[in-house]
Amino acid sequence: METKKFKGWGVLVAAFILSFIPTAIMSNCFSLFMAPVCADLGFSTTSWSMVSLISSFASAIGAMIIAGMYQKKNMKLIMMIVTIGTSLCWVVATFCTAIWQFYLIFGLSNIFMAGLTQLPISMLVTAWFEDRRATMMSIAYAGGGLGGTVWSPVLTKFISSGTDGWKTAMLFAAVTVGVITVLTALFLVKRSPAEYGTEPYRTGNKTDQKDSRQEKAAEWIGVSKKVATKSSAWYCVLGVVICVGILAAGVTTHVPNFVTSIAQDGGTLQGTVLSVYSVVSIFGMLGGGVLMDKLGIRKTVLCAAVLVIVGLASLVAYSVTGITVVVFGYAFFALAMFLPKVLPAVLMSKVFGTKDYAGIYATANLFFLIGSAFGAVLTSIIQGIAGYGMTWIFYMIVAVLMFFFVSGAISGSEKLQAKYPQGD
Hints:
By secondary structure, this protein is mainly alpha-helical.
């Protein structure tokens, strides 16, 4: 198949939109609602934090349920149903007055929303891009970072418009996500190339493609979820996603407080550091995918681990010296933050193939969320005992462990391919 005949570019656009609209608006910008809702309804920030925790695990459950539906049912129809369900939940949320109501409605919302965020993005890109998969995955996920910078000021403007501004912002989010995502599902979403009489994206010239049938037959289809979860590679994969979750959440959720505790400036430096982080992370997202395709997963993760260590070392140095410019070394950490999105998505297809990709990915995502939830708590515990300096050193060790788990997962994949050359 020649690249010029590829028919799946619209699918990449769909994946980007899913990242730019529902992911950015309803997930990445969700924290904007905490302060106004708590102020309006008299909730404590601690009680509202439970909304995020419940939502995270509801999303994991939803992904496992919807993964099977996406694989076996009409993907367009299911996506439209979960879109409408998500939007309706956000509309209902504007009528909530008790905290338990928010727990219920956003728990339900995130079950639906699991069908609009990481799961479908990973499924679509994996199905349609055999070559340069990591690059395309990073392009799709970059929509989340870009969307955050676009939609955050828009939602903030709605929220600050009055006492009920947060309700207006939620209605805006519901309508925007509902309309655009339904249209995306109708006109751009295509579950797999085979269903449309075409093939996934492959690079190469006509000479390289002469024996495309033989190449296709030689491709490893992969193993079922049952076989995958009983292999040694599976435990290494779980180690990867847990480490990535702990690393991402454990560091990013506490850096703002850490910076302010040192600077003692009321949060001015914190805002600047986070702005730089947001911009740099977009470039990191794009660059990480390209490197994976050029260097391979193992080498790219090694580079990312080095970036993480350098970024964390900058935080350690800032805690010791208090020199403002040093803290901006945190940008190196931002460059590695393609890891939470791109690495698990690409690693699953590399290690276990595409046969039962959605089910395997959805199950692994649950452990990623466990790692994320544990990371934020772990940082609080360690810094309370030993201070932030030792906490950042601990996360350097986590980065090293992540690399060894990745290496183990890829080695385990080679054993699976040797045992099931035609798939199980």
